[in-house]
Design goal:
Length: 320
Amino acid sequence: MKRTANYTNSYYYYSEPVFEATRQNAHEVVKSIVESYPDAITMDNEDGHDFIQYAVINRSEKIYNLLYNMRKHGNIYNTKEDSSKNNLLHLAARLAPNNKLKSISGAALQMQRELKWFKEVEGFVCPSNTLKENSSGETPEMVFSREHRELVIQGEEWMKKTAESYTITAALIITIVFAAAITVPGGNDQNKGTPLFTNKAAFTIFAISDAVSLFTAVTSLLLFLSILTTRFAEEDFLFKLPKQLLIGLATLFISTTAMIIAFGATLFLVFGQESLWVLIPIGALTCLPIISFVTLQFPLIKDLIRSTYGRSIFDKTKPY
């Protein structure tokens, strides 16, 4: 009786802190509790989930990472089920809590993070669990599709609105630089038909920059158009769509920069041949739109790079 009473007291003492720490992704707290009270690993909350299952539901990656170093207990999660016959992959297929989704900018990147969680847990559980049905007769993929149906629609709308706005910008740049390539600064020699400033270094800079701007703007436009015409399947949000948007933004930035350089070279050819001081205001004004583009679009580019090519949130190397 005394042992039972001690266990009950310990359970009451550790149960609430370990699940609250799991919800908040406070892995150091969870580690300290488990080290002090090893039976905390087997404790269940009111829904019948232990702290690893609860970590998956709440997308607490630091707590989930402890799973890879729980030598004695880690393997049970390959087949462990809750009272509704949901295995760990069923739980990963659920939609993340709203506060976790809001921490990620854009519905498309939110969907990408959800897919990463699902793929991560899918690689951990037994292969048979991917097809196993819960008490409602649903496989993990069926649960994922049902739970994320609305997020897929939101991700599609976000992607289309983003791509449409950049498509207009790319089309305008193509129109401008194509017209500039035809009507070269200074005009052409009436006898030979060659540009008058052919031998000028600034004209060479203009020609190269204009060509680079045109080609990269066309590439950017095609990438954004491919986003608008894609099927928007769930798997596309994992890598395909973010990659296309990122490359499209990168080529659009190169195109914008090259266009501004070409315009600056034109100004120097027309007005600065005899006055080198004109280079100073031209250089300053050239940097202004480039800096503005980087400042305004860098947060989105940074999020795309970090989410698609950055370090994984799942760390399997840290010892427990």
